[in-house]
Amino acid sequence: MPEVRRHIQHSHQSVDEYTYDICDSNFVQSQQPFLNNAQALQVIVNCDDMEIVNPLGSHVNKHKVFMFYYMPANIPPEYRSKTDVIQLLAVARTRDLRDGNTDSKLLADFCNTIHRMSGQHASAW
Q: What domain count does the chain have?
């Protein structure tokens, strides 16, 4: 998307000492990919629990699912909450995620791709 590319190419980092956004934080600015490249892609991953209920029929069941989303952090915060920007990453049953490190297995391909794009090994994160 051209508008996303424009935001990535022209950083919205603050020019003063105040933190207005995640890209202004000491944590982000101290990470190796962002030290070497101000245009490096920043990614935010969020998660949310959701309950799905079918009230019709004789078997009324609740199905709890856990949803993971991602969005680029390079764009200004006022655009990040738009539904066009938020991308669904994964969906899993909540009870399956309680069984151990299923979430790391579920997100392994995404995390490995991000690590490859950054030029760093997964162990460095």
A: 1
